[in-house]
Write a structure and sequence with these properties.
Layout: H1 2-6, H2 8-42, H3 45-53, H4 55-65, H5 69-81, H6 85-121, H7 127-141, H8 144-157, H9 163-188, H10 191-211, H11 233-264, H12 267-279, H13 281-303, H14 307-334, H15 336-343, H16 349-381, H17 385-411, H18 413-439, E1 463-468, H19 471-487, H20 492-513, E2 522-528, E3 533-539, H21 546-552, H22 562-570, E4 573-579, E5 582-588
Antiparallel strand pairs: 1-2, 2-3, 3-5, 4-5
Helix pairs in contact: 2-8, 2-9, 2-10, 2-13, 2-14, 3-7, 3-12, 4-6, 4-8, 4-11, 5-6, 5-8, 5-11, 5-13, 6-7, 6-8, 6-11, 7-10, 8-10, 9-10, 11-12, 11-17, 12-16, 13-14, 13-16, 14-16, 15-16, 16-17, 16-18, 17-18, 19-20, 20-22
Length: about 600
């Protein structure tokens, strides 16, 4: 029980970030799923095949649009962890501008080259299928600008304490897309072009919802073109390339799998694979959210050299991935047939039968690769970006293409199905092999999957950590931290002031910030090293800036707030920042 309470905040940060990121990711995926369902029911098998044909293109486009989203989240999180709000806004402004420019250029290129791209993706497909694919890409080009900006803003909503905005965005975009899709198929009859335009206009409406966040009072993020700092661009791209590599690997896989199926069995098998891909799009959004949020949360703890928090964050990530992934796998295995009928008309018997088999194979394969997304996020958060690239390329590109090609050309469609499952087995084996090679120890616990530098965290004898929920616990921790300072060679004055600081700040949070709500706590981390002396306090109570409060309120007596005022007077640097639903104060002595 004590261990869980001690690390509750890092787990809470992960869960809140994951919920918001999942909604953001699912929004784009849900729109594609809705398009696929209505396409199959109203426009027929060729239209479903066309949706499958453009999957490589949409994967590349999502990778491009997401190039800065992971970077903006992690770099802003890192700066917030250091309580550097000015740098947060420089990063925010710079990367939003870069995203808008990149989206505009990509949109123009796609609009001009859509028919040629469709023909290139389906060299063996029927002309009707490639024509439909080209029409969809034309309409989808208009989606790139609002989608690209929205992906970046959504990554920051929880940092700016407005996760409800992301929920409203997701609901609005989904409802708008459903309504506009139905208007297209029932009244306008614009075919695949109309389906893509419905998605594009839905994204525009959603972007307006997100931009209304900046009309709120008290938001932290401030956009300004006079506040640009392109020095962060390189690191943002390196971080963001992790997600982009995922998308490019998926593109490579989709392109080759599509053409392998066209050669083996024709457009019927391609339509069946398209059904399976569409059915699993929502699970893909879960995977992407796990990867991104694990990286962001672990990046926050990595900067503080907090190994315990890293372990708990990775543990929460793996637990979340397997809970959700297992439920999805069971549902898809049990209901593969009705799920397939959602995307295809009942008269398409051959395609339906094959779709059912593909859905079940993907259910098994996705269960096998779950660990790789948590592990990839861990690599990103602990500055092992290249390992995430390697894992992504193997999981999403090399393994499935090699296995499906080898088994497919030997055994036909049954070989393709077997190859899909084998690629998952190889991915799971790789997840154990990489940390085994680096740590020279076969991983048997969450901690064993972490790949950290030698002498990573503060020396245990120089580190004090505690978690407080009540006034009594605050008083006890105050005494303990005073003794800790004495034992580390600090003078009586410093030890007393640190003790008073903890008692007053943590006591204020417990008495006034929790408001009687459950699952509230204050976390303290004190480092008294030779080269680093630091106090960090975090709590998940109501928002309160003690520095500003002290500036605006003179004490009524000399003793009032003595610990806070004296520690601030002794400090080299004092910062407060409210982010991710937490109050955070960092004092460097």
């Amino acid at each position: 029980m004590a261990e869980k309470r001690k690390h509750y905040l890092i787990e809470g940060i992960f869960k809140r970030n994951f919920a918001v990121m999942l909604l953001a990711m699912m929004t784009g995926m849900i729109c594609v799923v809705v398009d696929s369902v209505l396409t199959g029911q109203f426009l027929g098998k060729d239209a479903v095949a066309a949706m499958g044909l453009i999957t490589p293109a949409t994967s590349v486009l999502m990778g491009i649009m997401s190039l800065f989203s992971t970077g903006i989240g992690q770099l802003c999180t890192r700066s917030m962890g250091k309580a550097d709000l000015k740098q947060v806004n420089r990063i925010f402004s710079t990367l939003v501008c870069c995203t808008a420019a990149l989206s505009a250029v990509t949109s123009a290129i796609l609009l001009a080259l859509a028919p040629g791209i469709a023909r290139m993706l389906g060299t063996a497909a029927e002309p009707e299928v490639t024509t439909m694919a080209g029409d969809y890409l034309k309409g989808y080009a208009l989606n790139l600008i609002p989608l690209g900006i929205a992906i970046n803003l959504n990554a920051l909503m929880i940092l700016d304490n407005d996760q409800r905005r992301s929920i409203l965005y997701a609901v609005t975009v989904f409802l708008a897309d459903v309504v506009l899709d139905l208007v297209n198929v029932l009244f306008l009859h614009l075919g695949m072009l109309g389906m893509a335009l419905a998605t594009s206009f839905s994204s525009i409406i959603g972007l307006v919802i997100l931009l209304m966040h900046f009309r709120k009072k008290g938001h932290l993020l401030r956009f300004s073109t006079r506040n640009l700092d392109f020095s962060c661009l390189g690191e943002a791209i390196i971080i963001g390339m992790g997600h982009t590599v995922n998308q490019l690997s998926a593109t490579f896989r989709s392109f080759f799998l599509n053409n392998i199926l066209l050669m083996i069995s024709g457009s019927t098998a391609l339509a069946a694979l398209s059904v399976a891909n569409s059915a699993f799009l929502l699970l893909v959004s879960v995977f992407s959210s796990i990867l991104s949020v694990t990286g962001s949360v672990m990046n926050l703890s990595y900067g503080e050299e907090d190994q315990n928090a890293l372990k708990r964050a990775l543990g929460a990530s793996i637990q979340t991935a397997y809970r959700i992934g297992t439920v999805f796998a069971v549902l898809f295995l049990a209901f593969a047939a009705p799920i397939s009928r959602v995307f295809l008309r009942g008269s398409e018997i051959e395609a339906l039968d094959q779709a059912v088999r593909f859905v079940r194979c993907y259910a098994i394969q996705n269960l096998l690769v779950l660990l790789s997304y948590s592990l990839g996020g861990s690599f990103m958060g602990t500055r092992r970006v290249k390992l995430n690239y390697l894992l992504s390329v193997l999981r999403d590109g090399v393994y499935p293409v090699a296995c499906v090609a080898a088994m497919g050309f030997l055994f036909g469609l049954r070989g393709v199905e077997t190859g899909i499952v084998i690629s998952g087995v190889l991915t799971l084996a790789t997840c154990f092999l990489i940390p085994w090679l680096y740590n020279r120890k076969f991983p048997t616990s969450v901690e064993d999957f972490l790949i950290l530098p030698e002498n990573f965290c503060a020396e245990p004898e120089r580190l004090f950590e505690a978690s407080m929920h009540t006034v009594e616990e605050v008083a006890d921790v105050s005494r303990q931290v005073r003794q800790f300072c004495h034992e580390r060679g600090e003078d009586d004055k410093t030890a007393m002031f640190v003790s008073l600081f903890v008692e007053e700040m943590a006591g204020n949070a417990v008495m006034h910030g929790f408001q009687g709500k459950k699952n509230r706590q204050v976390e303290l981390r004190v480092i008294m090293g030779k080269d680093k002396r630091l106090i960090r306090l975090r709590d998940n109570g109501i928002r309160f800036d003690p520095i500003k409060w002290l500036e605006m309120n003179e004490p009524k007596s000399v003793e009032e707030n003595l610990g806070v005022r004296m520690v601030i007077g002794l400090a080299k640097d004092v910062n407060y920042i409210p982010a991710m639903g937490l109050n955070q104060m960092i004092v460097r002595l």
